[in-house]
Design goal:
The protein has about 200 residues and is α/β, with parallel strands linked by helices. Helix content is about 40%, strand content about 20%.
């Protein structure tokens, strides 16, 4: 089963579990994001230092010191699509990246004071979406989506410090901090397949 086939299963489950009016609001939001302009392969990304989930700072320089870095931008631990994706990357991608001297790192706008994720690779907090904004990934949450998320018990103001989200994305950065692969998913129910990431390397 591919990652996106599994994500379709999550979407079907949520369709049945969520109130229809809330599901329709979220569906409309993912369609609205299509056509946004993002960073492209060949551009250079500025160095950054972000705190890990345990508070330890990690820089992009650290991540690309010995080889390319695969950066996975995700919405947050509250997002079931993100959780499935990160678990899949850990199982199917991490061993292959390690064999290729590449690092895997997840980045979200969540504050670093939440529960530690059960992952074997770094999870960094881009509070304020500074790094994501530089890649064109950050966007403000619309009023209808904010109301829907609050009804579901997700308060981004508390979790992120702001009502702002990021489009899920995978970027591959080489040792010179040049973007070699950029795959953005304005439709947050889809993600980059592990095979695509390995091919980009």
């Amino acid at each position: 089963m591919t990652l996106n086939s599994a994500l379709n299963g999550v979407n079907d489950q949520l369709r049945g579990a969520l109130p229809p009016e809330i599901f329709e609001i979220l569906e409309a939001d993912r369609r609205r994001a299509a056509g946004t302009k993002f960073a492209e392969a060949g551009a250079k990304i500025e160095d950054f230092t972000l705190p890990g989930a345990d508070g330890t700072p990690v820089s992009l320089g650290d991540l690309v010191a010995d080889g390319p870095a695969v950066l996975v931008f995700y919405r947050g631990q509250w997002c079931p699509y993100c959780n499935l994706t990160l678990r899949t990357y850990q199982q199917e991608l991490l061993p292959e990246l390690t064999a290729r001297n590449a690092t895997l790192t997840a980045i979200s706008p969540q504050k670093p004071d939440g529960p530690l994720p059960d992952l074997e690779f770094p999870v960094l907090s881009d509070t304020g979406s500074t790094v994501a904004r530089g890649l064109g990934l950050s966007y403000p949450v619309s009023a209808p989506v904010r109301e829907a998320m609050e009804r579901l018990g997700t308060d981004l103001e508390r979790v992120n410090g702001t009502w702002e989200l990021v489009h899920p994305a995978v970027v591959v950065v080489d040792r010179d901090r040049v973007l070699r692969f950029v795959d953005v998913h304005p439709d947050f129910t889809t993600r980059t397949e592990p095979a695509e990431i390995l091919k980009s390397l």
